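Hey L., structure's done. Input below.
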Amino acid sequence: MKKSLRPTSVLQLALIAFALVGVPLIFALVTATLAVDRLASQSRQSIRQAIQIIDAGRALVEELTGMERNARQYQLLGDAELLESYLRRRDNFLRSVEILRQHEFSAEYRRDLAALVAEEQQVFVTLSSQSPGSQEAGAAVARFPVLADGARRILADGSRDIGREAEQMRLQAANTQQRLLWQALAVIPAALVLAAIGTVLITRPIRQIERAIRRLGSGHFDAPVEVRGPRDLEELGARLDWLRVRLLDLDAQKIRFLRDVSHELKTPLTAIREGAQLLSDQVVGELTPAQEEVADILCKSSIQLQRRIEDLLSFNTIVQGLGAPVLQEPVELRRLIDHVLSEQRVSVKSKDLQVDVDAAALTVPGDQEQLRIVLDNLLSNAIKYSPAGGRIQVRLRRREGQAVIEIQDEGPGIIPEERTKVFGPFYQGSAVYDGHVKGTGLGLAITHEYVRAHHGTIEVADIPHGTCLQVKLPLADERGAEEATTTS
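Output:
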């Protein structure tokens, strides 16, 4: 379709679609109306003709009967008034004959009518030329019963012709009904097809816009936005593509900002950590108890800050598509759990927490550093939200060919509405945290990406109290069997 022939708006396209659907329906309606009107007009005309024919045929019989009675009385009495009455009845008879002659009848009917008129004419001539009571006039009067029989025969023939015409009208009505039925059977599918085409033409660009918006909302900015349809929707698609380019540029700026800020913060942070550690180790001299407490706070805060910066760097790596495991080595999960717990012992001790470990000896293929970050983030999250003196359970089991890691705490828990959102970047849940430093919302997002990179899953398990994060990773032997099956 040329651009100049495209509709300029959705309204115009909708009107065109409605017109295309309405034209065959209107055509069918007009055709049906004309056919029914024509059939009704023919029916009315046939009924009028039938009434006229029946009335004229009955009039022939009645007038001939009256003419016979007047003629016989005239022959007996010779009264002129009786002759005038005969003549008046004869005029009515002739008018009825003219009415019948105006209609189209069968050849047999026309022959009978002509014979009746000729016979009546001979009787009339004889009665007019002969004196009353003469033998010729008596013979003419005696022929009236024959005329009456002919009139009755004409009446019967007319009824038969009316019946045949009524049958023809019935057949014509049946044919009209069948024609209208076939026309409806042809028009309705055509209208439905045109309606479907119009619906596709209207909804296709809208679906294209919807898909583009969904892609933008999910953060996929690579595919250009293309909308084909009315010009106003194409212009809207162009504006969405401009928005896509703008979001892509902003996303690139965000990545550069995270990278630059994270690297800029690491250098002074290293100096702060080293200085705080020197103070805590009393290398520069003995500290008072208050000074030791301050130095300890500086050490802990610098560790927390370093962890936040590492989260930013990890997230930046994931966003750039570099989060897939670069190593595929056997990772002993039980040993990795013990290592992460040893790193978190200070935080566990500061909140007087009890950590119960129930871990089987399982090995998975993957990147040990990334899996360490996964376990570290999950345990840090459990420590963060656990109440003082609470209990944390760490479980590692084999289930259906997978290693299942569960870390459960006794914290406030995660409401069902947030169980999928917590794995999004920078998302802060509604759970109350009474610590001094609020998290960045990147820990679980990074964990989710690393788990997915290892072909695993992570979810919030449904438990009555607290929070239980469950990670499933394919085991080394199961993963090898799966890859072997895929290769073959």
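The CA atoms of residues 354 and 391 lie 5 Å apart. The first strand starts at residue 329 and ends at 332.

-- N.
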